[in-house]
Design a protein that fits this description.
By secondary structure, the chain is an alpha+beta fold. It has a domain at 46-146: Nuclear Transport Factor 2, Chain: A. It is built from five helices and four strands. The radius of gyration is 28 Å and the shape is rod-shaped.
Length: 148
């Protein structure tokens, strides 16, 4: 007489691979989302950042007329070229800019702002803020602050 083998309960599969896999997938999704936002903001602020760096380069080179041409019409009404040049000459130590580092950037429709520091030839970092507006496809400064 053949005796059937004893019936065994099915073995439960461990849950931990599903938990680890799920957490890993969630982590990858969050990192991807954050990276997409970060690089999206960088891409959206690329053109105004280039104008800001161009402005700083003109200041560092003493090219005040070229720097002034990057002003918006509103800023030109607020600050004449003569007043701008006088202020720049009086604060020439703040114009020896080697690099700009932005710790904050914001884009709201056609207005972009940057906050950060300007590194000077002396190695000193000073606060720097810029705001630009897009007018007819061109980014122009509406506000700037160096060292304040």
């Amino acid at each position: 007489m053949n005796v059937p083998p004893p019936i065994q309960a099915p073995r439960k599969k461990p849950v931990w691979p599903w938990v680890v896999g799920g957490c890993g997938c969630a982590l990858v999704a969050v990192v991807g989302f954050v990276a997409a936002i970060f690089f999206g903001v960088l891409k959206m602020t690329e053109a105004p950042e280039a104008v800001t760096r161009q402005f700083a380069n003109h200041l560092a080179s003493g090219e005040f007329p070229q720097a002034y041409e990057l002003f918006s019409p509103a800023l030109k009404r607020e600050q004449s070229y003569e007043a701008f040049e006088t202020m720049m000459l009086a604060n020439s130590e703040l114009l020896q800019i080697v690099d700009l580092t932005f710790t904050s950037r914001n884009r709201d429709n056609n207005v972009t702002s940057f906050k950060g520091t300007a590194e000077l030839v002396s190695g000193t970092d000073i606060p720097a803020e810029f705001e630009l507006v897009e007018i007819n496809g061109a980014w122009l400064l509406t506000r700037y602050s160096l060292g304040n």
